[in-house]
Specification:
about 190 residues, alpha/beta, Rossmann fold, 2 domains, 7-stranded mixed beta sheet, 7 helices, globular
Amino acid sequence: MDINIAIFASGSGSNAERIIKEFEGTLLKPCVVFCNKPNAFVLERSKKLGVPAVVFNREEFSSENFLDKLSAFKIDFIVLAGFLWKVPEYLIKAYPNKIINIHPALLPKYGGKGMYGSHVHEAVVANGEQETGITIHLVNENYDEGRHIFQAKCPVTPNDTPETVASKIHELEYEHFPAVIAQYISDYKV
């Protein structure tokens, strides 16, 4: 039986594209991309890959009526792939332990409101960290505090810049995110 996945993204969508391609021909079906930015490049990627996209605003997202949009696609799991808004409590309750996020740091370090993308990498370099990485976790009502599913590390050298750290993080994301999602869903117990 197919498992329908909604991917939420706010930007370029490289992780969304990777997930869609990796799950092609499997029981995991990324059947829709939800995006909160009408000009985000993820919309071009989803169109090219033949995956429908839904653009929404904050007012729609804050209303429980948003669940109707997910129901229309019979969504079983939600994956946040570079989605920058806090997930409302009604959505967390509707999908308990079924919303998976990726964060570009080794949580609990460098998590929380405002800690995303280049902000994280700049802080890692500014603080002289010797390692960083990714954390794949479940979403709860607090930013970046849900149960960890997986972490992967990479070194930070004295010559690294926020841009080189970002490149290392992207490699970890591409390598691990689809496989960890697939494993989590396959192991999922109600």
